[in-house]
Amino acid sequence: MTNPLFKALPSDFNKQDFIAFHHRDEHEVAERYADNVIEKGLIWGAYPARLCFDFNDVNRVQVSLHCDAEKASIDSAKLSQLADHMLGLDQRIEAFERFCSRQNTPFSHLVQQQKGLRIPQSASPFEAFSWAIIGQQISVKAAISIRRRFIQTFGMEHSSGLLCYPTAESLQHATPESLQASGLSNSKAATLLLLAEHICQQKLVWPSQLDHTIIGAFSKQLLALKGIGPWTVSYGLLRGFGWLDGSLHGDVAVRRHLSSLLATPTVMDAKATEQWLADYAPWRALAGAHLWAMGSASGY
């Protein structure tokens, strides 16, 4: 176990958003919540580990990592960076909120009501993109069920009993049939294996820096993989990298909530939603997240 880290939380930080996202599966195979503490199983290096976020202090969170291997190297700086990332503390939301505050629209009022909204992050880019692939064109409830079976099949167990979310390396010897047995369709199984193969063979390298040029080039690489489209790219970048400018115009919940907010006679189509979101660049995905939050954003 590392010495615990203490992270100061902004006054507008909403811990319930973080808890809801990471506790979206009530079966608690890989994440569990009790007594104001979120525990998550993940692979640290090559070893199973349990990452804890303790919210019992009012203005800060205590972060600790419990690794099963005594010889595992736990870099406190790396852990601190991961905690900032997962909590969304590295997301620059203030400029977006100032931009919206200068407007007088239904959406600007919504942003004011939801001030401080940050997007909780997956523990790794692979977790974010695999979750996006699993969730393509199905309900959140169905996606959570498939995710659970995927983790049960391919996840490594930590001594606490939590399963660790699979890595790309976990799928190196997986077969399409084993993924289909977890509930994935033939096409999703093929896409997930293709993504894992590209990562393991370093044909696809996660970007270490983020700007529009790098993200644009990386997005083209992802879109070249069969089964990965614009929504999957934008969602994976949002949940895996905290990239706030992907366009979620293809997201059914975004379109439904936007139509409700603007009181349109019918649900807005993807093109109209894309045009509306364009006004909020470079924070289009953050705008989409505010629309998610009109309902329950826990599973998105």
UniProtKB/TrEMBL annotation:
Signal peptide: none annotated. It is an enzyme of class 3 (hydrolase). One of its GO terms (molecular function) is alkylated DNA binding. It catalyses: Hydrolysis of alkylated DNA, releasing 3-methyladenine, 3-methylguanine, 7-methylguanine and 7-methyladenine. Residues 134-296 form the HhH-GPD domain. InterPro entries: Alkylbase_DNA_Glycosylase/TA, DNA_glycosylase, HhH-GPD_domain. The keyword Plastid does not apply. Keywords: DNA damage, DNA repair. GO terms for biological process: base-excision repair, AP site formation; DNA alkylation repair. Its EC number is 3.2.2.21. GO terms for cellular component: cytoplasm; protein-DNA complex. Coiled coil: none annotated. It comes from the Bacteria. This is DNA-3-methyladenine glycosylase II.
